[in-house]
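for the recovery benchmark. tokens below, seq after
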């Protein structure tokens, strides 16, 4: 299975469903502008805030590693969306071509294999996140953004197998949210006292080989009525 290609296909389907066909031109089907780069830097800020970086509080605090994983996956959603946008509007090729380009990038070999090492310190990890932001704002080449994402994710010890599992989980959760009134404000985000993201992660831990279809059904069973 080509994990990169499958994630790109799922992201294309999700964007088509939530923003309408033709979202690559920069507008939703409701006439609202789309800015994937803004999405990336705001998620990156939330990622940094998962660390006890503030010198005036939580001095002895620990990073929230479960939330760190979710924020990295959210950034990946938007990095892929920006890549899909650029490939479409610049006529660089289709999803197969983009997947091949991604797999040829620097840092992808390290990112694609799990190589547990001693984790970086808190501020070293934050520096990797901020390096992604520097590329986001200083370079237009999507390949540079993709490469620095892989470097950051590897530095945070989130490699392709885990990112893929979490991405599929979050993608299906996003579909589930849309189907249960997220846009209309009717969706219940806390399930029996826990965030829906946490409920989704619990399912993945219990059923690591769950298919997208099975995951949707298990979310349905957990969703509070």
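predicted aa per position
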């Amino acid at each position: 299975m080509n994990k990169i290609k499958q994630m790109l296909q799922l992201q294309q389907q999700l964007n088509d469903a939530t923003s309408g066909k033709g979202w690559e031109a920069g507008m939703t089907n409701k006439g609202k502008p789309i800015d994937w780069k803004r999405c990336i830097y705001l998620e990156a800020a939330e990622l940094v805030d998962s660390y006890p970086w503030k010198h005036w509080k939580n001095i002895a605090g620990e990073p929230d590693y479960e939330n760190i994983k979710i924020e990295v996956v959210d950034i990946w959603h938007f990095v892929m969306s920006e890549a899909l946008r650029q490939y479409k509007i610049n006529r660089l090729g289709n999803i197969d071509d983009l997947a091949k380009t991604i797999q040829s990038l620097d840092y992808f070999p390290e990112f694609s294999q799990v190589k547990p090492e001693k984790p970086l310190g808190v501020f070293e990890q934050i520096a990797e996140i901020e390096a992604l932001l520097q590329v986001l704002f200083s370079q237009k080449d999507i390949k540079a953004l993709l490469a620095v994402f892989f470097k950051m994710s590897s530095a945070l010890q989130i490699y392709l197998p885990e990112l893929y599992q979490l991405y599929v989980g979050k993608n299906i959760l996003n579909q589930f949210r849309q189907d249960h009134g997220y846009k209309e404000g009717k969706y219940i985000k806390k399930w029996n006292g826990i965030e829906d993201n946490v409920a989704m992660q619990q399912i993945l831990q219990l059923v690591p080989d769950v298919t997208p279809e099975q995951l949707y059904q298990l979310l349905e069973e957990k969703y509070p009525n």
